[in-house]
Structures are given as C-alpha cells and as structure tokens.
UniProtKB/TrEMBL annotation:
Region Disordered, residue ranges: 36-61
Protein name (database record): Transposase
Statement: the UniProt record of this protein carries the keyword Coiled coil: yes
Pfam families: HTH_Tnp_1
Membrane spanning stretches: none
Coiled coil ranges: 64-91
Organism whose genome encodes this protein: Candidatus Methylomirabilis limnetica
Superkingdom to which the source organism belongs: Bacteria
SUPFAM superfamilies, per the entry: Homeodomain-like (SSF46689)
UniProt keyword annotations, A-Z: Coiled coil
GO biological process, one term: DNA transposition
Length: 104
C-alpha cells in the first residue's frame, strides 16, 4: 500500500488555513475538511502560529514549479471527477432498477 505523500503548501495557503481554523465560525475538523488538510497538520500549524513561527515553516523546501502545481490541480480534479462518476453510476443503476416491471 502506498503512503500518503507529504504535501507542500504555499505560505498563503498555510496562513489562510490558520485563519480559517482560528477566526472562522467552524470547528477544527470542519476547517480541515474545507481546506483538505489532515487534522494533525492543521493542529501543528495552529500551534506554530501561536508561538509566532508560522513564517519559518517551509523555508528549507524548494518552491513548487508551475508544472508541479498543475499536476496537483489535475490530480485533485481527477479525484473529483471519479467521485462524480461513481455517484452517477449508482444513481443510474437505482433508476434503471426502479423502471423494470414488477420491481415496485
């Protein structure tokens, strides 16, 4: 089984996630779902933000290239399209079953 790859996030994304987790009118689990982060990652970001070291995170990493960012967007879009496809398959099967004679 493959492990989950470590995410690299921009400074703006980290700041927005922390802002959503602290100032937003939602719980931490809801905020993590909204920004697609693991709860432990957002918790770590909130702790580093409280200590004032949020800007130091990621300084040792090289920035993402345009191709890497495009690849990440494409992968996310593929996941969404697959979910939509699966939902459509299930709904089509449900309505096809309902329209068969003698199944009501």
């Amino acid at each position: 089984m493959k492990g989950i790859p470590q995410g690299r996030y921009t400074k703006e994304f980290r700041e927005e996630a922390v802002k959503l987790g602290t100032e937003g009118n939602m719980t931490i689990p809801a905020a993590t779902r909204r920004v697609s982060l693991p709860p432990s990652t957002l918790g770590n970001r909130l702790r580093t933000s409280k200590s004032g070291k949020l800007s130091e995170i990621g300084k040792s990493q090289k920035p993402l290239t345009g191709i890497e960012m495009e690849l990440a967007r494409t992968k996310q879009e593929l996941v969404e399209v697959k979910m939509e496809r699966d939902i459509l398959k299930k709904s089509a099967a449900y309505f096809a079953k309902e329209s068969l004679p003698g199944t009501r």
